[in-house]
Here is the input.
Amino acid sequence: MDALPIEEETGARWASTIKGVMHACGHDGHTAMLLGSARELAQTREFNGTAVVVFQPAEEGGGGGKAMLDDGLMDRFGIDEIYAMHTETTLAIGQFATTIGPFGASVGSFKIRIDGKGAHGAEPQDGIDPLVVGANILLALQTIVSRNVHPRQCAVVTVGWLNAGKAGNVIPPFAEMGGTTRTFDPIVRNLIEARVFAIAEKVAEAYGGESHRQLQAYVPATGQSRS
Here is the structure.
């Protein structure tokens, strides 16, 4: 459903049976707890009206909730109210928590390609090393939260991968990197997005390279209104 490219070594009864991928974010837990809720509701029937059980697809960056709403979910099934729940490892089994306002951060993802100039590893003066550029971009991105975001705001900028080249004695012509952001405030999100791309552009330019960036996905923060 939303598996990530990680080998599962938990030894759990429900561990992934597919090599190299697992439900590392626990979204299969959402399926399990909703099925359990449906079974309990069906067996007890201690409620009035109709309960609709909704399984959201594409939680991992796919915006499945919006896709369901755009598809007419609320009208097609006559839904008056809807409640959602997300797993939380800091709570004991059987407990849940909520609050007024945002409690689940918005998710953004980005990809940056750095174009340099390939060369022999023994002749670096003839090339523009995209790995050096990428490494400096990665380090500079870590200043966004500490130096651009207000101390009273919460934010995360993480680079999860940086790939380039296949041989130790060759300077590759390009490198690619990708990461994710987390914010609660849309103003902070816009700030971070602008800083990520500005840093990538200017750092690459400083080393004689070029950067090409792409905002791959954005899912807004999860929150609850007073109504």
User: Anything to note?
Assistant: Residues 186-206 form the longest helix (21 residues). The first strand starts at residue 101 and ends at 104.
